[in-house]
Amino acid sequence: MGPDEEQGAGVQPWPLPSTGREQAPRVLVAEDQPEMRALLHRALKRRGYEVVEAEDGPGLVKAIIDGLLADQTLVPDLIITDVRMPGYSGLEVVARLRREGWTTPVILITAFGDAQLHRDAAQLGAACVLDKPFAMEDLCATAEALVPPSR
Question: What residues does the Response regulatory domain cover (predicted)?
Fold first, then answer.
């Protein structure tokens, strides 16, 4: 997730310093089911978040990299990702982020939330795991506790 190359000119280590921005916090939502992704997007947008979407694991990684490489760095303040997606699983992404030293909070969502998955997620440093079906209010309340929206 962070650059694999050596720290060079123009590349800042994660986490980036606060920009003191007044804009809405950015939430990156990775979900392979289009209907669920749209529901998450609408719910978070209504709560005051800027939402960026990814439809699978590689799309999630690409969105993070694109944000880092943008003219004005656009990194997510919060990541919400499904555990089981094509390409990379949500757990694999969390593991890579943590290996790279990123502290971005991650909410994992899953329809396969057994006790082992919850233990693995906690060990990797995920903020929480929400088992599907979950109440959208619970997801939004968790997001707001981790990264309060701009008001």
Answer: 26-147
